[in-house]
Amino acid sequence: MKYELPKLGFEYNALEPHVSEEQLKIHHTKHHQSYVDAANKAFEKLENARKENSEFDAKSELKNLAFNASGHILHSLFWENLSPKGGEPEGKLKEILEKEFGSIERFKQEFSEAAKSTEGSGWAVLAYDKKSQKPVIMQIEKHSNNHIPEMPLLLVLDVWEHAYYLDYKNARPKFVEAFWNIVNWKIVAERLERAMK
Fold it and tell me: Which own/partner contact pairs does 60-68 have at CB distance under 8 Å and 24+ positions apart?
């Protein structure tokens, strides 16, 4: 089975004015599609090397696979945690964020700082640590560096320039601020519920 570009749960213009139709369409159909294609090609290359029992550059090929497969997975999570309706966290999600961070505003502040200060290209991520039973904010550089394994991802924010440059130029902080208007808290809460089981 091959990776496929997921369909969005909304129209390309649905996130305006926070994300323009042009920005979203290019991000989804060009950038995300390129990770899907490259990951599938990497899987195919590895499969062929195994069938032919031939040599391959493990370091290069496995790094390429991790980068592109992670890019596809993170983008797939990203589209799901966007919504034209926005809103605020509720229920257990709200409770757990307030317990850990003191308030929703403090959580947003810390997550925003993680997003704004991610070096180069990468992601701000809210994950759930099952061992400590706490939400954890992380920065993932590129698509696969600095991620803590075994922590389910609840909320992801793409801060590669391709996610915002048409709309916000080099003003990443303005994009991060706009993000809070389009978060699908319902899907974040569902991910938390699954992570806590």
Answer: 64/38, 65/39, 66/143, 66/144, 67/142, 67/143, 67/144, 68/35, 68/36, 68/38, 68/39, 68/42, 68/143
